[in-house]
């Protein structure tokens, strides 16, 4: 719970430093890479708000993501966490082919929900194969809800 409180405390700043919040989230979960996408008003597009560790050549592919495409888009569509133990060997089709260029393996994307509404997605990843625990998933969902509450 301390992890969540430390991360969500940065939401009390005005304006919120989204890059710093994402950095704190990545560090707290022992990850190396992450993205924070906000849902564009009146669209089905997730727009990149902050990122850490995404190669420059992938920025055009991750800057705007349609709901239903890739891990972030599927997490938004399903309104539940989407996880891959090893993105590099995944054959489910959830991860887009270019995602392998991030060189990450254990990955998760969670929707940022508040009062039943979607506000965006939070994604983090490790450079090794990894299955996130139920507690970690619940903590990430709580962080996503806190972010969404700030955006509401």
Automatic annotation (TrEMBL):
The record's InterPro entries line, in alphabetical order, gives: GAF (IPR003018), GAF-like_dom_sf (IPR029016)
Any one Pfam family here would be GAF_2
SUPFAM superfamilies listed in its UniProt record: GAF domain-like
Which domain of life, per UniProt? Answer: Bacteria
Ranges where the GAF domain occurs: 19-151
The protein here is known as: GAF domain-containing protein
